[in-house]
Amino acid sequence: RMQEAGEYTMKMHPMWQGPLVAPGGNRQSPIDIRVRKSVFDPHLKPLTPDYDPRTCSQIWNNGYSFLVEYDDTTDKSTLKGGPLEDNFRLCQFHFHWGESNAWGSEHTVDRRLFPAELHMVHWNSDKYSRFEEAVMEENGLAVIGVFLKIGKRHEGLQKLVDVLPAVRHKDSVVEFTRFDPACLLPTNIDDYWTYAGSLTTPPLTEAVTWIIMKQHIEVSHDQLAVFRSLLFTSAEEEVQKSMVNNFRVQQSLQGRTVRSSFT
Ligand SMILES: CCc1cc2c(cc1OS(N)(=O)=O)CC[C@@H]1[C@@H]2CC[C@]2(C)[C@@H](O)CC[C@@H]12
Ligand SMILES: [Zn+2]
């Protein structure tokens, strides 16, 4: 019997069977961005990502998403400007998506859901010496969020899509080199919202300056379908679970202000 509408019960990924709220969390992510409540900040500078594709090293299925990891032992792929006071180093990017195109993003814009969301994770290399340290510190991380919509095929993404079957199972890793993450940014990166939040997966630490792009990117239905062919489960497990709906429920704003770089 097909599930009746509204009867939909999402099988929670084991990650969410634990504590859903960080202890004492008052700046949690993701959130709904209320456009009319965001405050234009004329002092926000243009964002200046400067990525070196040669720092791309591997793709890893960590059992919740797939992470494209970058060598962050030097200042070769960096992010500066925007709301950021310091220099940040790119360490990985990953996505969140749904089992249908009707939902999948973590952030929403006036409650509008997107089929997927890209996160590019950077850490403050002026203040800390390694990612694991910055993860625990306020203003330790900066994450760029980009919404994905279904439309024309994304040529730059295809190189990544083609290698995903090699990391189908949890804990699989495959070498992946010379991928320029800038190709996944929208053409206009000057218009964004920014707010103080947290990681949306454990350790859920309130270390993140979020920078959410106003302009989305387009990927094809077939490209997103390959994301859904990944598995939460490792090769040994007898019951295989499709990697879908790997997003966190929205958190309350708790008095925070979302700033915009545009009017
Ligand atoms: C894909 C979602 C994901 C995984 C990870 C982080 C962040 C992640 O997404 S999100 N949405 O930016 O919060 C930051 C902490 C990372 C973790 C991947 C695994 C680690 C790198 C651990 O090995 C140590 C710190 C962990
Ligand atoms: Zn994420």
Describe the structure.
The strands form two sheets. Strands 2, 3, 4, 5, 6, 7, 9, 10, 11, 12, 13, 14 and 15 form a 13-stranded mixed beta sheet that branches. A two-stranded parallel ribbon has the order 1-8. It has three helices and 15 strands. With 263 residues, the protein is mainly β. It has helices spanning 131-134, 155-163, 221-227, and strands spanning 32-33, 39-40, 47-50, 56-61, 66-70, 78-81, 88-97, 108-109, 116-124, 141-150, 173-175, 192-197, 208-213, 217-219, 259-260. 38% of the residues are buried. A hairpin with a 4-residue loop joins strand 4 (56-61) and strand 5. The radius of gyration is 18 Å and the shape is globular. The model is unreliable at 1-9 (pLDDT under 50). The structure holds the ligand CCc1cc2c(cc1OS(N)(=O)=O)CC[C@@H]1[C@@H]2CC[C@]2(C)[C@@H](O)CC[C@@H]12 and zinc ion. The ligand CCc1cc2c(cc1OS(N)(=O)=O)CC[C@@H]1[C@@H]2CC[C@]2(C)[C@@H](O)CC[C@@H]12 binds next to strand 9.
